[in-house]
Structures are given as C-alpha cells and as structure tokens.
Amino acid sequence: MEKPEYAVEMKGIYKSFEGVHALTDVQLSVRPGEIHALMGENGAGKSTLIKVLSGAHQADAGEIFIKGEKVDIKNTKDGNDNGVSVIYQEFALVPHLSVAENIFIDEFGFQIKRINWIRLHRRAKEALEAVGFGDIDPRTPVRELSVAYQQVVEICKALTRNAEILVLDEPTAVLTNKEVDKLFALILDLKKSGVAIIYISHRLEEIFRISDRITVFKDGKYVDTVNTADMQPKSLVSMMIGRDLASFFPQRTESKFGDVVLKVENVSAGRMVQDVSFELRAGEVLGLSGLVGAGRTETIRAILGVDKMERGKVSLYGKEIRLKSAKDAFDRGIGFLPEDRKNQGVLLRMPIKYNITLSSIKKISAFFGWLLQKAETVFALDMQEKVGIKTDNLQHNVNSLSGGNQQKVAIARILASDSTILILDEPTRGVDVGAKMEIFKLVNELVYQNYAILMISSEMIEIIGMCDRAVVFREGKSVGVVNKADMTEETLIHYAMGI
User: Fold this and answer.
1) What is the model's pLDDT at position 241?
2) 269 and 233 assigned to the same domain
C-alpha cells in the first residue's frame, strides 16, 4: 500500500469564540520527517489551530487527516491516541516528581498498587539515551533540571506516547545558544526517524536554520506555504505583517542627546561582571550587545543592587549612588523591565488596571491611603492610551493578552511611576513581529520625550535598528562602544567574539 504524502492534513478549518473568528478556512499539510514552521503575528491563529489539532479545541468546521485517514479529534486523549503531542512554552511537568515518573506519568492510574521502580528507571534511561541525553538521571526531581533538560523530558514523554506529530511552541525562548544547538540536534534526529515536526517561533534566524517549509497565517487566515530555501527574511516578514521590512524599525527624524544621566565606572561583581564602564544620556537609546552569557544582565543586576557590587562606581545625574535593590532604583526614577516577563514583569492573574497602577498607588489615593477608584480608572486608561495596550476592558487579567501587550503593561507600570531612565532587558523576547514594531515605535516616542533608555537585546539587528550607540560585552567585560554610523553586524560580532 502506498504511503500517504502527509502525516497530517487540516482542511477548511473554522473556529470562532463568542462570535469572533479565530480561524477562517485555514489549512495545513505536514509531511513525515519534515520540520514545518508555522508563522504569523500574535492573534494570527497559530495557537488556535494547534489546539484544534491536539483536541484542546474542537473546530466548528473542517477536516483533519492523519496519515491519509480522516479522524475525529474531540479531546486531548484523541489527539494523543492519533500520535499528536504538543510541547508548550509552559511545560506540563510535575516539578516534585522524578524524570522517570514524568515521562511515564500516563501509566500511573488509581489501580496501580505496586510500581517496579527498577524497570521504570531503566525504561526512562533508555528513552533518554534514545534522544541523546543519557546523562540525565531518571531519578532526579524535574524541578532540579535546567529548562533545556526539562524540555528534553517533555520530548521523551511525547515519544513514549508514540508521537508521530510533534508540535514545539517557542522551544528556545529561554535557552542559551549552547542549549539551542543541542535541541536542534535532537530535532534533526527526530526528523530523520520520520517524526513530523511543527515548529512555532518568532525568531527568523531559527526558522531559516532548521525548517524545510513555512506556512504563514495572518488574521486567522491562511496566507501561503513556501519552501524555506526559496525565501528571504524580508519577504517572509512582508507576508506576515503585510508591510515591507523597511518599516520594521521606525526611523527617528532626529536625535537630541542631553546630559549624562547614568554613569557606570569600572563595575565588577563576581566572575560575570569585570570592569564594566559606560554612560547613558537623556534622549538616547544605548544598547548592551554581546553573546548569551557575556554578562549584560548580570551587570544590570549589580548596578541595581540585586547582586552585590564588589568594585566600581555608579553615578545618577552626576551624584555617586549605591543602590540597594530594584525598589531603591525605582524610587530614584530608574525603571527596570526584567527579561522574564511572565514571572517578574507582570502579575498574570491580576487585572490589567491593577498591574498598571501597582507602582503608583500614592497618585490615586486620598488621605489615610483610601484608593480613589475613579481616579485609578482614569489614570490606567491614560497609560493604556500612552503605550497602546490593545484591550477593550482593563478589568481583564493580564494573561488574557498577547505577549506583546503583556510587555506593554509592564512598560506602562514603569512609566506610571515617573521613571525617566528605563532599563529594558530583552523587551521583544517571545513577541511577534507586529508587536515588536509597536514596542520599537513606543521606544522612539519615549526618546522624543527625553527618556533615557538602556536596551539589552540578543538580536543584533535590533541593536542596529534601534540604538544610538552600543556597548559590546565579552566574557563579563565591556570591550567596545560602537556609534550609530559604524554599527554593523560584522562590527558587533568582531567585538563580541574578540576578533
């Protein structure tokens, strides 16, 4: 019997939520042994389609074929039974259980009275060795593993379910370059074994590095499926956003720099921060560039007093200071947007309004600390308009928003506290192309208002596109300052790699 061309086909898929069309006549076809990228802005319908495939959502109309046979996937068990496994950004692991217990958690039922632990650990070891990670001890509690190794456990769990269609949703969002290389090696091995892989990522360099074909969605509709080898980043971005890449980084008509507002001199803090110096001026975007692990975030932590600063001097508006904590920095007008948005930047399960006003309670309070609710609403609406948060109700929880809008909520909270120096650590990580453009536009608007912005980014194209100057880090040291006119990927790489 002739093998079917596609491991999975989805045809004419429709899905609405309370009258809002999330998917309209969408299609997707993925071959066995193919890495198929699924791309589009937040809200384009990628996650909804995957949830339909896995059984988390049921389509209003359309057909799903697995290996050429039409299937009816009513729930996630049906999805698993049909060989579909999805690994989301938030892992479905039980932290206090061991690696082995997590891999074979489906086999534990209420009827089991006795577990053969020796056999369980041996099977888990074999599963880990099969994907090239035999160094993971199957008896280790999952909470003690790195994020990269937790991801491997998720993949092993999927493969023990005989997954033939594996969906990876932003799998590298919190991985180092070295961990990304190991993950990609594993994905390529799975491809060779015939697993169909659907790969969702906002990182263009990853898509071009690892995928065979790309399907693009826009506004809940299918745009096109193309061979990766036939595409250029510029063309792909245009497909996703309906605009030319030339408008990706909004140009500032002019740059007017003021006085130095923050000066860092010869700061050292442990092995990761050694003799770092730079200056930040009002009306400037200063980039901190370098390879992952170069010490950029660690430098900021030392400056803010989160980690102990061993040596060096920090001056604010010409006066030497020694910050004791991020709150101390906040009180002095230095706002910090952390890299880990979901755990440190916002309160996901609290209303948008409360997140915005959390750091500005005094502005909307009367005597004896009484909160003026009407004033709070007006204040929150004003900040919503200022940063462009897209929502029709500020009472909705933050986790109802897209990643880009969550990031805007975090920025609104900082601005609401009258911070004039903003430290943005990976401000566009995990957000789609359209949301990135909106954040860049917001940064430009703040610079026009004479804010001073320190931006950490691992993407050199962002540093080049947005920053007036860039301080390049290598092995915990600031090794060079590059002006806008000289800023190229080649120059930044030379400094970052010590060439």
Assistant:
1) 67
2) no
